[in-house]
Amino acid sequence: MTTPAIVKLRKELRFNSPVFRHALRSAFAVTLAIAASHILNLHHGIWLPISVLVIMRPSLGGTLRIGWNRLLGTVIGASIGIGMLLSLGEHHGILIPLILAALFLTLFLKVYNYTAYITALTTMVVLALGLIMPMGWKLGMVRILDTFLGVGIGVGCAFLLWPTRARKSIRRETKKTLCALEKHFSLLADHYLSGQTGNDSVIPSRIKVNEQLAECRESFREAAAEPGLSSAQRQELSRLLRTFSRIADLLSALYTVITRAKGKPLPEIKKYTATLLKETRELFSWMVSYAGSPETCGDKPDHRSAIHRFLIMGSRLRSIGTFDKVPLQRRNNISALVWNIRTIGAELDLAHERITALRKGRKN
Is residue 188 predicted with pLDDT exceeding 50? Predict the structure, then answer.
């Protein structure tokens, strides 16, 4: 019986596969690092291939970003460690609590900031070497040099050996993110119209949105680290990502509104609410198409007019006393629903502007 791992291996075992090329590129870079450590007769040559392995990423931008962060963290951390060792002199007893503090910071910062994590890790390593060796501070300088060389080898191989540009995946990641947001909104709309408020399908959908946002964030950061994008395009990438995050937050707020509704929409406005939700779905669908193939898109749906029509309808019904017997909390809930949908439409308009600006910048 064929295992999934073997199926995956057979699928990627071709030269035009990005995974296969990344494996070859990483293997060549590590081999080059090991050879360099032997030729230069480095005392801690293992640091060289480790640096290469850590910074190598499938895309050029990812390698550049991680490489720079590791180099910066190593220089700062080694400098801090060397400074402490030289200032303490023979008072080695103080090093033990300092090493423990650096270990705590290493574990704590690992999930928050890579540069800070490497800074704490390097400080801990240099202090530990200073504790067990009489001239351990010199190894801090060796670690800096090894990291410089390792990052140089990794980045050089990423540039020269079948470089994979992260900026080429901007369109794909943008479409995937909008598609995830669209599916989540459609699910929430169906729940509202049907009167369901269960978490069985909403929570998995929200998790998928968060996972896609994380993937999009990583892809955009890697693209921004690559040469070839202008500073204006890098700013637009950051703004587009913030827009996606705000839409996700609005969808979470929309679910809160739906759960507070405690049932189906008011019968008097259910038809109008369904129409508004349908028009919002159409805007989402149009944005997904625009993100993927703008050449084949028709005219952009006018979501502002849809909101305006709904508000006019609401004012007319209010004037004839339709909502007089509706509890205030229920009326406030309807207002919150409309506000969220209107704001989601405004954020989608902003996303459209960001995507258009990105494309114009790339053409220029």
Answer: yes
